[in-house]
Amino acid sequence: MEPQLQALFLELSPQGRAAILTRLAHEVTIIARGDGYAEDGTADGVVLRGYNELVHKLVGHAARILESGTGDADDASFIAMLAELPQLMPRLSRLLRQGFRQ
Fold this sequence. Notes:
Blueprint: H1 3-11, H2 14-35, H3 45-68, H4 74-83, H5 89-98
Helix pairs in contact: 2-3, 2-5
């Protein structure tokens, strides 16, 4: 991940961080619709479960942020984990650059 993207995320308020993560979770559902089905409409269960797990992680981390009311040390490592998912980086970059600062 570009260091400035991680810095942008960490500069956000807890509400801003949660907003980014939930918007990203929403976009993952859109990605899954394209990647999780064959041209004939047959579902690829392995791919769909992988996206489901990612949505679970995104929403779970957002909930932890909102419940604690603060960012925590896990935020940096969580964003670093997302950086390993190349299909998400353009979307995360766009969301952060749009400035969901609160």
